[in-house]
Amino acid sequence: MLTNEIIQQKLTDKFGDSLTDWQVPFGMLTFTAPKEINLKVLQFLFDEPELKFNFLTDLQAVHYPNNKGAELAVVYHLHNWVDNIRIRFKVFTDINQPDVYSATALYQSANFMERETYDFYGVNFVGHPNLIRILNVDEMDYFPMRKEFPLEDQTRIDKDDDMFGR
Amino acid sequence: MSEHILLPEGSIEKQTTTLNLGPTHPATHGVFQNILELDGERIMKATSTVGYIHRAFEKIAERRALYQITPLTDRLNYCSSPINNMGWHLTCEKLLQVETPKRVDYLRIIIMELARISDHLICNSIVGVDSGAYSGFLYVMQFRELIYEIYEEVCGSRLTTNIGRIGGFERNFTNTAFEKLEKFLDEKTGYPAQLREFENLFNRNRIFMERTIGCGAITGERAMNYGFTGPNLRAAGVDYDVRVHSPYSSYQDFDFTVPIGTTGDCYDRFLVRNQEMWQSLSIIKQAYQKVQEFKGAEAEIFHADVPAYYLPEKKDVYTKMEALIYHFKIIMGETEMPVGEVYNSVEGANGELGYYLISDGGRTPYRLHFRRPCFIYYQAYPELTQGGMLSDAVITMSSLNLIAGELDA
User: Fold this and answer.
1) Is B295 inside any structural domain?
2) How many contiguous H segments (helices) and E segments (strands) does chain A have?
3) Which chain A positions have a beta carbon within 8 Å of B238's beta carbon?
4) How far apart are CA B11 and CA B9, in angstroms?
5) Could you tell me if A105 lies within 8 Å of chain B, comparing CB atoms?
6) I want to staple B316 with a disulfide (CB 3.0 to 4.6 A). Which of B23, B182, B323, B381 is the partner?
7) A111 touches chain B (CB under 8 A)
């Protein structure tokens, strides 16, 4: 029976101290990898006969503007269907040079998901076959999900609208 | 021996035709554009463009209190919005660590399985329409109406339901709701009889079989690599179902089988969806039986006892001080969430519908991501259609059950 401890042990044996920030929020093993080895980690999790993480459930980014030098996090959710166990791992990247290796060679499903992540956060997936905007218009010249584009403050009072009374 | 006529290099007859299928083509049932390179009627290359109805739900959700995000989830897969709503409530409950009573779980399962049936019946009857058989569609639509009447009785709306609350339902199911459910489940006059007739019309229909067998096929391995989930994956022979793998809302109490196909073509997808409807009917019957077993005060439970998160009933708001306070706190979005990140998924009608919610302890999500199954498996569409005929591409699209709302978020 594969458990979080075994997965952590196997990953530590392989990659040593480069994997950090081990946590288990709500039962899902979570860790952080340096962005240079994200593909190596994915490949190891895919190939290792005991781990068998061969389904990429989800891939997206998160923006932490206060985390200087590592503002953008790319989050991978992987699922092992044989032992039915999920893990999540993150790679952090500098927002001024957001280059992360693309997982499209390993997972076809990463194609659209990486395009979506690029579209909203501007993560530059190196090696992606067709890294263009997907949901937003092609002419857009910014990355709308970043935190520097806040939505309107719902409590603002400088707006006087007779029709809707705010 | 007839001699082949060789056309000169670069002559117009040798070139392929470029055809825009969409963005608003009646056969695509939604706003998708596919630029097809055609050699005669055969597709050589397909390029998909999506995003025509993107509505920035993930961005909007970063400024919304939890209960205000439920209407956003309605508009993902609008053919089965109750599943999306329940998935969102379950995600919030996981983060807020709310335990729901068994009766709530069973009522939720009834609603979710009804939603699955309404989604599958639309998908399958549209496959029929696209292959030239319109009558099946008209017959089953009557029964979608019955399902919508049940939703209406429970939550007041039909398509974009906004059904349920964090912790349970907004009100208890009325007797009328159960009567309508019984009418729907009736063996002779209800949906089972109709589904049987629908299967008689299609399952061994020579024309339909010729049209769909071998069309848009994918192997299980490719399907996994493309991130397929749900009926489309199971049609390719991989028995992954979130309801079985990670049971939520007490699915472990129910007895059902996961139908799988072998070839992953349109015909198998059709059969898998039909079988799933039978399984859903059986689950609804079991759940209804379990709900009826609750007696006395237990039969009145329709939400968990979590006043801080569950929006109180209006009659309590008008008469009880505490309910009034919580009502204002929740409506004004002043409920603070615990810090944490949670991924929760439910088996949507199209596959694994996931919610990745990061909370920084504020009143709104720091980040919310919807894993939309449609969006992920749509990237296989060029591969599924390449080398096939143009009319097969249309059937493949409808049998994948692409919902533009879910695709574009």
Assistant:
1) yes
2) 3, 7
3) 81
4) 6
5) no
6) B323
7) yes
Classify residue A118 by burial, with Cβ atoms within 10 Å: 0-12, 13-18, 19+.
buried
Residue A159: the pLDDT is 66
**Rounded Cα gap, residues B114 and A44, in angstroms:** 42
Q: Do B356 and A58 make contact, defined as CB atoms within 8 angstroms?
A: yes
Look at residue A59 and give its three-state secondary structure: strand
**CATH number assigned to the domain comprising residue B155:** 1.10.645.10
Reported confidence tier of residue A161, pLDDT bands at 50, 70, 90: low
pLDDT tens-digit map of B67-95 = 889 999 998 988 889 999 999 999 999 99
Is residue B10 in some structural domain? no
**Chain segment A13-44, per-residue pLDDT in tens:** 888 888 888 989 888 999 999 988 989 999 99
pLDDT at B7 over 70: no
- What is the three-class DSSP state of B360? coil
Q: Supply B126's token pair.
A: 């549209």
Quick check: A23 contacting B, CB < 8 Å?
no
CB neighbours of residue B354 within 10 Å: 23
Please provide the DSSP assignment of B44-84 as one string.
EEEEEE--TT---HHHHHTTS-HHHHHHHHHTSSTTSHHHH
What is the residue type of A57? T
Parse chain A into domains and list their residue ranges: 4-97
Contact: A57, B408; criterion CB under 8 Å: no
Given a contact cutoff of 8 angstroms between Cβ atoms, the answer to whether A130 and A108 are in contact is: no
Say if residue A50 is exposed, middle or buried (CB neighbours under 10 Å; 0-12, 13-18, 19+): exposed
- Cβ atoms of B300 and B172 within 8 Å: the answer is yes
pLDDT tens string B105-120: 999 999 999 999 999 9
Query: Is A18 touching B (CB cutoff 8 A)?
Result: no
CA B182 to chain centre: 23
Question: What phi and psi values does residue B7 have, to the nearest 5 degrees?
Answer: -85, 145
The whole domain housing B102 covers 57-408
- How many domains in chain B? 1
Which of the listed CATH numbers 1.10.10.10, 3.90.550.10, 3.40.50.2300, 3.30.460.80 matches domain A4-97? Answer: 3.30.460.80
Rg, C-alpha atoms of chain A: 19
Whether B33 maps to a domain, the answer reads no
How many beta-carbon pairs under 8 angstroms link A with B?
A: 87
3-state class of A57 per DSSP? strand
Residue B274 lies in a domain: yes
